[in-house]
Specification:
Blueprint lengths: L1 H13 L19 E4 L1 H4 L5 H13 L9 E3 L25 H11 L3 E7 L15 H11 L3 E5 L8 H15 L4 E4 L17 E3 L12 E2 L4 E2 L2 H8 L11 E3 L11 H13 L4 E3 L8 H7 L2 H7 L8 E6 L2 E7 L5 E7 L5 E5 L6 E2 L7 E2 L6 E5 L8 E4 L4 E5 L3 E9 L3
Parallel strand pairs: 1-2, 1-10, 2-3, 3-4, 4-5, 5-6, 6-9
Antiparallel strand pairs: 7-8, 11-12, 12-13, 13-20, 14-19, 15-16, 17-18, 17-20
The protein binds alpha-D-galactopyranose (GLA).
């Protein structure tokens, strides 16, 4: 019976037969979602105690107060079999209290719970996928009180991506609980071109790994570094906006990069208006890492209400300058040094006069407007770095960024 429904669903998806339009839940992820996910640090080694401890740490360390809201189970929470009626179950050994109890625990702390499934027969970790059970799975998540679904793309031979994601989007809608729908199709079928009404975010690339600029070749697939993923997202800014974000994958901040690299990684994800999903062990987070992920002025660049993804204005190989329009005429101005030596640079502001024709239509105007310069990685008085009246000399350390918020003096 179960097998037959999988076969029917697979044939429908191969033929592209499914409700061809989706109407996802609106009003979710008006700014990029923020939270934590188990995969980057723990992979399949997860259980309910870990997740409860993570929820406690989110609150105790001020991470929740900074805006990180979702706690997301990734792969491997599943039991090996569905129940007699075909409903998905959690692993009874790792999650003996059940997902509903875990959701209650997370909700009591003012947070939300996310879960993970896959559009194919099996997840990437070999657990049961949702193919043929989409509506049942959506219903189960809604009953459990789940708030977020990451939906992966393993074991999907001959399945049409748009059809599969539309099907699950409609299933979530039918289940009735507002659930953020996070597509994880790795960018293969260019979801940015068609998923705006289907999902709240879509992965744009294969998996990240904890490296600043090296590829990890697994043979049949590659894991990408922070800089590779940045490059793959640079040209996708036209597709992102409130409620529908490019997702360059979860953060590796706190997982072993240098402090400069962590700062650059976090900053560039903010410049990309990316979902900020932590992937480290926040129970044992260092003060240095906390200072990065809790920098509210940097988070505000990511969470800016306009929701406009940043633009790579200058690309000189190892040296880049990115601009991001912000609410109220402000701009984020970010210098990135990809090299292993510090770079000295003189900012001749008028060179950065620019109109964002394709997305916001906003312009910088360094010829007629003077801006206050705030260095967002410095604190207090040290953060005030004068105005754009004169050119500015800056040193960008190796594998690091300098990030300014520019505010027009006469608005
Ligand atoms: C894929 C996804 C990852 C993670 C794993 C889990 O590789 O892209 O983010 O969810 O599956 O198996």
């Amino acid at each position: 019976m179960i097998k037959r429904s999988i076969v029917i669903a697979a044939v429908c998806l191969m033929l592209g037969i499914s409700n061809s339009t989706a109407q996802k839940f609106e009003g979710i992820a008006q700014t990029p979602q923020m939270g934590w996910n188990s995969w980057n640090k723990f992979a399949c080694d997860i259980n309910e105690e870990l997740i409860r401890d993570i929820a406690d740490a989110m609150v105790e360390k001020g991470i929740a107060a900074a805006g990180y809201e979702y706690i997301n189970l990734d792969d491997c929470w599943h039991a090996p079999e569905r129940d007699a009626d075909g409903f998905i179950q959690c692993d009874p050994v790792r999650f003996p209290s059940g997902i509903k109890a875990l959701a209650d625990y997370v909700h009591e702390r003012g947070l939300k719970l996310g879960i993970y499934s896959d559009a194919g027969t099996h997840t990437c970790g070999g657990r049961l996928g949702s193919l043929g059970h989409e509506y049942q799975d959506a219903l189960q998540y809604a009953r459990w009180g789940v708030d977020y679904l990451k939906y992966d793309w393993c074991s999907t031979d001959n399945i049409n991506a748009k059809g599969a994601y539309t099907l699950m989007s409609n299933a979530l809608r039918a289940a009735g609980r507002p659930i953020l729908f996070s597509m994880c199709e790795w960018g293969t079928a260019k979801p940015w071109e068609w998923a705006q009404d289907i999902a709240h975010s879509w992965r744009t690339t294969g998996d990240i790994w904890c490296s600043f600029d090296q590829i990890l070749d697994h043979g049949s697939w590659k894991a990408w570094s922070v800089m590779h993923i940045l490059d793959m997202n640079a040209d996708l800014r036209d597709y992102a906006g409130p409620g529908h974000w490019n997702d360059p994958d979860m953060l590796e901040v706190g997982n072993g990069l240098t402090q400069s690299e962590d700062r650059a990684h976090f900053t560039m994800w903010c410049m990309l208006s990316a979902p900020l999903i932590l992937g480290n062990d926040i129970r044992n987070i260092s003060d240095e890492t906390l200072a990065i992920i809790l920098n509210k002025r940097v988070i505000a660049i990511d969470q800016d209400e306009l929701g406009v993804q940043g633009y790579r204005f200058l690309d000189e190989g190892d040296f880049e300058v990115w601009l991001k329009p912000l609410k109220g005429g402000d701009w984020a101005f970010c210098l990135l040094n990809r090299s292993t030596e510090p770079i000295e640079y003189t900012i001749d502001w008028e060179r950065f006069n620019w109109t964002d024709e394709s997305v916001s239509k906003l312009s910088t105007d360094f010829s007629n407007t003077r801006y206050n310069i705030e260095n967002l990685w410095k604190e207090g008085k040290a953060a005030k770095e004068g105005t754009t009246k004169r050119s500015k000399e800056v040193v960008v350390p190796a594998h690091d960024v300098v990030l300014y918020r520019l505010s027009p003096i006469t608005k």
